[in-house]
Description:
By secondary structure, the protein is an alpha/beta fold. It has 13 helices and 9 strands. The protein has a 9-stranded mixed beta sheet with strand order 1-2-4-3-5-6-7-8-9, with helices on both faces. The longest helix has 17 residues, at 226-242.
Amino acid sequence: MSSTELPSVSAATSVLPKVAPVxxxxxxxxxxxxxxxxxxxxxxxxxxxxxxxPALYVHGLGGSSQNWSQLMAELDGLVESEALDLPGxxxxxxxxxxxxxxxxxxxxVIRYLDAAGRGPVHLFGNSLxxxxxxxxxxxxxxxxxxxxxxxxALPEIRVQRSAVPTALLGLPGVASLFTRISREWTAEQRxxxxxxLCYGDPGQVTPEAFRYAVEELERRLQLPxxxxxxxxxxxxxxxxxxxxxxxGLWRQAERVLxxxxxxxxxxxxxxxxxxxxxxxxxxxxxxxxxxxxAGHVAMMEYPESVAxxxxxxxxxxxxxxxxxxxxxxxxxxxYGAGADAARGRRALEADGFGRGGxxxxxxxxxxxxxxxxxxxxxxxxxxxxxSGAGHDGNDDTNAGS
Length: 401
């Protein structure tokens, strides 16, 4: 049964309680964007200067746009950053059709990019957001300049034991059962549990960041659709894992044309580090950054390292001009436009999108100080080895998976 076959909690028909406002960091702005069937909250940073290339960030299960605040700040002056709250998460209400599948979320991202006219963008995704952005890059290469995936939720044959409870949340009735069982848990207890699961070193979270996380979780728990969105999105991941053929995430990863940065951490309890090598072999133009001490959301534990690797990705892809400055909007030398994008417009209606992906091989692979996949399919590690990917230790520890 797909997540769309269950009765939905409609944003239009539910009377939502008054909750505390979402936190907005220094230099950030929030706005609400109404689109057919969805309303998205978009977090952006004030541009350092005009003409910077656009970047879009997509969070993971249970997370929000706040998960990207640290990395967005690190990339000031390099890109013009926007981060989405996916439907039903952060400050975005549920989708009208109750579709929390990976395809449904990807469709929301595409709908936003088409409406905003921001593409092609430097696209970032973490965990569930990594699966979503992989699908976007595969079916709409014209929208993506580069792709950065941090602990992407791609199918594993042997799922990590610590990730099983998240998968079980997608089973019918489990979310309501868990809600009853955990009714007496305080927000502080819940947040500490998330930290223990998602951080390589929970001790690095500051008291201030912990307080912000507790406040945000208390806000979310007042929303009547919170557990519904979690359960349906969990089921959406499980369903995506079981898809085969051209609809499978690994098959779509093979079709991604954009230069890709893969970030995995050694202490990830949700995405196994053993998947890093497979991902590096599958994405045709990839670089692998290994962070042995990171947990599930490296962009928040090690934003400086991720930002440095992204800058190297831009240099490899020819996106940096003289003096290491980024090319202007519309000057991408990557694969978001031109003949490759035209080929990418072949319709794949079975995927549920208006435009199709591209298969075939790219001619060459880039090289950089982070590890670069060779034509033989091997990959080195730029920062050691381990078994995972990171989670954010700053503004919002409710980063999800």
